[in-house]
Known about the structure:
Distance between the termini: 50 Å
Largest sheet: 5 strands, mixed
CATH superfamily: CAP
Order of helices and strands: HEHEHEHHEEHH
Structural class: alpha+beta
Strand content: 5-15%
Number of strands: 5
Mean pLDDT: 77
Helix content: 25-40%
Low-confidence stretches: 1-18, 27-32, 229-240
Number of helices: 7
Amino acid sequence: xxxxxxxxxxxxxxxxxxxxxxxxxxxxxxxxxxxxxxxxxxxxxxxxxxxxxxxxxxxxxxxxxxxxxxxxxxxxxxxxxxxxxxxxxxxxxxxxxxxxxxxxxxxxxxxxxxxxxxxxxxxxxxxxxxxxxxxxxxxxxxxxxxxxxxxxxxxxxxxxxxxxxxxxxxxxxxxxxxxxxxxxxxxxxxxxxxxxxxxxxxxxxxxxxxxxxxxxxxxxxxxxxxxxxxxxxxxxxxxx
Length: 240
């Protein structure tokens, strides 16, 4: 019985790998027709994520070129099919995906990151619980054992649809209240509160998440009441 289970698991893994490879070939062929434009947004992606991770006392991400290439391939495929679909990473990495369509908004990595982080308002800090599945986007971004990211943006010139894909590694997240409490930290200015109403958490603005021109380590935002509470006592926190 154990032997049959092992053979079955092996078959499933081979099937997923072959299927993933075929999808990427399809995406590459579509991209070669000059309908797909794909760019990596390394600096803005890193800065916005690490800005937010400081709020939750999580270590800064570093850039992973292999993840970035995977993100480029996958976002190209998504632009070719025009719908959101996850890439079945099998716990090697996690991913967040954002869909722009119709040219009604700019294709910007920071707007996507801000939207994902906005699901912090759906996370239950009081019971250390993902009560709404949408808050998993926030959890993936802030998990303190995740250390590397890679990202890309694609745009289909034919119908003006775009996709943002960010991949995060390592991808293992152990569920349960104890693990969430250990690896998903409260905002630094709310860490001593008995009760947190997540719906009242104020989000950083788009401008605050953009990289400042000449001083990427500028910490002026820490003195502003992002959550309705002054953060001036946290100025000792640094990006690295």
